[in-house]
Write a structure and sequence with these properties.
5-stranded mixed sheet, 107 residues, globular, 39% strand, 1 helix
């Protein structure tokens, strides 16, 4: 149960039907400028997911690498920016986004 809860905090496939939510309840201690946080081959109802993230040295950018090996493609993928006051942008797979309320990604 604990492992499932930890995964759901970062890669949540149960919040809404057809949606995959990323970083929704991610502990801030897991977001570092020194170490990359890595989730590889995490099982979801859509198929295995790889997610990596690391904060820039100045704390203004969150760099995210994301890939899913879909059995069934989710209708929506939503990345929730962590509540870091200095965060101004998120870069997902090389594409820049503003660190607004949430980022909708293409599956």
């Amino acid at each position: 149960l604990m492992t499932w809860s930890l995964r759901q905090a970062v890669i949540d496939d149960q919040l809404a039907e057809g949606e995959l939510h990323l970083l929704r309840l991610c502990p801030l201690a897991w977001i570092s400028e020194k170490e990359e946080t890595i989730f590889e081959n995490m099982p979801t109802e859509f198929g295995p997911v790889n997610l990596r993230f690391k904060k820039s040295a100045d704390g203004k950018t969150l760099n995210v690498s994301f890939h899913g090996d879909w059995r069934e493609q989710p209708e929506k993928i939503i990345l929730h920016p962590p509540p870091l006051p200095e965060l101004t942008r998120i870069v997902v797979n090389g594409k820049r986004y503003s660190a607004g309320k949430f980022v909708t990604l293409k599956p």
